[in-house]
Each structure stands twice: as structure tokens, then as C-alpha cells.
Amino acid sequence: MGQLDGKTAVVTGGSTGIGLAAAERLAAEGAHVFITGRREAELAKAVATVSAAVGNAATGAPSGGGVTAVRGDVSVAADVDRLYERVREGGRGLDVLFANAGVNPLATLDELTEELHDLIFDINVKGTFLTVQKALPLLNEGASVILTGSTAGEGGSAGMSAYGASKAAIRAYARAWTSELSGRGIRVNVVSPGPVDTPLMDTAFGARAAEMKAKLGAGLPAQRIGEPAEVAEAVAFLATRRSSFVYGANLYVDGGMNQV
């Protein structure tokens, strides 16, 4: 028996990387998971992956322990509305919301364009705001809202100023929303990964990805970068009643990066 049997979860950015690993983990605990992403082909692969992991056929029916994909961009309000209309059709409300969608194109201050800055903040910040605000009518009493932060939100890595600023905003959101939603028993927390082996990292570093992964891992107490499944375990902890007394926290899953 899973800890989320009969529950409904939403994972944005759920087609690859940390989002996909989290969708697998939540489904394994018995939740029916709605995943979003901007690319149809990746979503189809993700549905097959999650379904295989939990031993279910992907019927698309919100019946628990399965997965439904809804294509959309979290920075577009109409797309977020369409996602929650699908959730509403299930008739069970929403118990777990993992607002995970994000981008991290690298650019130093002199390279950062207005368009790139807007893209980062539209998806990482506005997208998180829309994802949580529009979920409010569906969130059940005692629901768990989890936001994806980053160690970059507190660091000062070259080429990551806009991304770091966007993740610092996520931390501020979590603090304020904890105060605003606690009266409904809704917990808001942040999971902050360090370097994790995801397609996002491959895209950010391009041809230097393998070199940068090795370099980053060597500088961590863990002596390696993380795996998406390791972050997914932290998400599962925050999603279930195992974390019932955890409110407004920032849970680092960073191999010790920000701890020593």
C-alpha cells in the first residue's frame, strides 16, 4: 500500500530529468500523476516510462497510480488553466503539486539579453506563480506544494545571475505562501538541488557537459553530481505525511555544496 494511494499529483516539467523521476516516484506511492511539458514527443515517452515503472497501462484515466500528460507551457495562463481543467475532471481535487518546470540558459552579464532574461523569469518565476495560484481552488485540505529551488539561488556562479535570481524569488514565494496557506493545512516547501545529471545540465553546458559534470562532482563532499532519482526521494518525502511538520523549509539535495 502506497503513501499516496488515491491521491492526485501534478508535476510540471515532468517529461524529463527531475520532474520525470518525481512523477515515477509519486506514482509508485499510488498517486495519479498529471505531468506537463512543452514537447509532445517527450511527454509521450514520459508516460510510457512512468507507466512501466508502476506496472500500469497508461489509460489516461485519473484512477490512481497512473499518469496523464497534458502538453503546455507554464508561463502561458491558458495552458495552466487547461491542465487544471483535466485535473478537475478527475473529481478528487489536488493533493500534491510539484512546481518544477524551469530553464537555465547560461549567460554572463554582458551576454544576457533582455529576451533571455525574460524567458528565464517567465518560466521559472511567473510559471511557478501561475502554477500555484491557479491550483488554489483544487488544493485539498492538507495538500503539499513543493517548489523547485536551486543552490544557485544563494550562490554567485558566473553565467547564472538571472537563473540564480529566479530561484531566490522561488524561496521568497515559499516563505510568503507558507504564511498565506497554512490556515488550510497546506504545506509549501522548496527542494533545492545542486548539480544533477539531467538534460537541463546537458543543454546548459553543451559540448562541455561531461567535463563540467566531472569538475562539479569533484568539488562536492559527495565526490559526484546527483541523480534525478535522489531528488525525487526528497520530493516524495515532502509530498507525504512523513513531512507533516515541515512548513516553509528549503531542503537541499546538493551533495553538500551549500553546507560546507
Helices, strands, pairings?
Layout: E1 8-11, H1 17-28, E2 32-37, H2 40-54, E3 67-71, H3 77-89, E4 94-99, H4 114-133, E5 139-148, H5 161-181, E6 187-193, H6 199-205, H7 209-218, H8 228-239, E7 250-253
Parallel strand pairs: 1-2, 1-4, 2-3, 4-5, 5-6, 6-7
Question: What are the defining features of this structure?
Answer:
single chain; alpha/beta; 7-stranded parallel beta sheet; 16% strand; globular
Task: Give a brief description.
The chain is α/β, with parallel strands linked by helices and 260 residues long.
Shape: globular
Structural class assignment: alpha/beta
Strand/helix succession: EHEHEHEHEHEHHHE
Low-confidence stretches: 57-63
Instruction: Indicate the mean pLDDT.
Output: 94
CATH architecture term: 3-Layer(aba) Sandwich
Helix content: 40-55%
Superfamily (CATH H level) name: NAD(P)-binding Rossmann-like Domain
Major sheet: order of its strands? 3-2-1-4-5-6-7
How many structural domains?
1
Number of distinct beta strands: 7
Distance between the ends: 38 Å
**Alpha carbon gyration radius:** 17 Å
* Largest beta-sheet details: 7 strands, parallel
Strand content: 15-25%
CATH class: Alpha Beta
CATH topology: Rossmann fold
Q: Count the helices. How many?
A: 8
Structure description:
By secondary structure, the protein is α/β, with parallel strands linked by helices. About 40% of the residues lie in helices and about 15% in strands. Helix 1 links the parallel strand 1 and strand 2.
